[in-house]
Amino acid sequence: MSQGSSSARKGIQQYVATRKGGPFQLIDAPYPVPGPNEICIRNRAVGLNALDWKNLHFGMMVENWPEIFGIDTAGVVEVVGENVTDIKAGDAVMSLAGHGGRAGAFQDVTTVPANYACRKPAAWTFEQAASVPICYLTAVATIIKGLGVPLPHLREPTKGEGEAIPNLDDLISPIATRPPQHLPKPAQINSVLVVGGSSGVGACAIQLLRNALPNLVIISTNSPAHKYKVTSGLGANTWVDRNLKPSEIAKAVQDASPQGKGVDAIIDAVSGAQGGANKAIFDSFRPDGPKLYSYVMTSMQKVEVPNGVKAAMIYGRMAFQTDGGGFEAMTRLADFVDKGDFKLPVEIEVVGKGLSAIGGGLEKLRRGVSGTKLVVSL
Ligand SMILES: NC(=O)c1ccc[n+]([C@@H]2O[C@H](COP(=O)([O-])OP(=O)(O)OC[C@H]3O[C@@H](n4cnc5c(N)ncnc54)[C@H](OP(=O)(O)O)[C@@H]3O)[C@@H](O)[C@H]2O)c1
């Protein structure tokens, strides 16, 4: 440990899901010890995500109970492990967390790898900052991994990258089982449909796409209430009412696409094309186009795609393993925000203060939100 010391610190409280379905329980725990390249963050605000209630009610990614959830946090660094040089004790940061023991956000102090975190932009409160990391990282991965589009705010590709064209079908393989892939050769993409442009992930994806490809035609599906937000606010060219029938959505997207031929790619932030009639959304594709379908993993079920569609199932942590600067996806975020190129994706609602407010917040989230991230202050 190079800065701060865990040994002299008092214990912490953890908000633990005791078993599938709950209840939560507050328990006392010793102050964590960071390993090399890790930091301990005193959480000041935590973001609530659908994954948290899905884990609670379905045990979606839970191996052992009791478990500590929470994948988004913002707070102040208290202790840093060996080799951490860019972050020091006392820094205000925002960070991806990860359910499981000391990495979960729903506790007083969270311990994560230093590259999961970045300086909190001065313009954002802790509550705002805590609403962003997982959605931003997931959007980064949908674009780099799923569409093969590099993001200019991350490092420029090094010489030699981009020359190998991967089989896009490979992109659905679990990335953890294979080494990082070379950055795909930038795909020829002139138009993209973002399904769920007003969701946290979708709102990040629209901004990142607009920044990367200024001439790209971006069409969003969302509720009418968010039409100005996704267009004037985030940079989509136009929007389609997500309450239309899927076949009507596909028709409207085609009409809005270049020459009315359909879009080259779809980023599906909400698995909107999952099952039954929703498959009609694939009719939005240009018949002779690359038909890239990059969708966020929202359950353990893959989205079945028609023949000819190149699908990539995406989860947030993939961002760190993408070439083209993915490892630094979080650390580059603060400067990106400061430059005015990335806005708070969705409005926040603070649903309570203290760890005990998390359970009620998750139930509220489960009932559904629209263009809002729920956050708890600590
Ligand atoms: N695997 C991962 O690593 C990972 C990471 C992040 C998120 N996720 C998953 O991705 C999904 C999105 O997460 P999020 O935090 O971005 O969600 P969110 O902001 O809570 O999503 C709510 C929004 O989704 C929109 N929406 C829902 N169904 C839609 C549909 N059929 N068509 C268009 N829009 C629709 C609604 O739009 P309107 O209000 O405009 O109606 C609403 O604003 C969640 O299922 C989450 O579990 C997975």
Automatic annotation (TrEMBL):
The UniProt record lists the keyword Hydrolase: no
Alphabetical list of InterPro entries matching this protein: ADH-like_N, ER, GroES-like_sf, NAD(P)-bd_dom_sf, Trans-enoyl_RdTase-like
Highest taxon, organism lineage: Eukaryota
Record bears the keyword Oxidoreductase: yes
Chain segments annotated as transmembrane: none
Domain Enoyl reductase (ER) per the UniProt entry, residue ranges: 21-376
Name listed for the protein in its UniProt record: Chaperonin 10-like protein
Gene source species: Podospora australis
Highest classification ranks of the organism: Eukaryota, Fungi, Dikarya, Ascomycota, Pezizomycotina
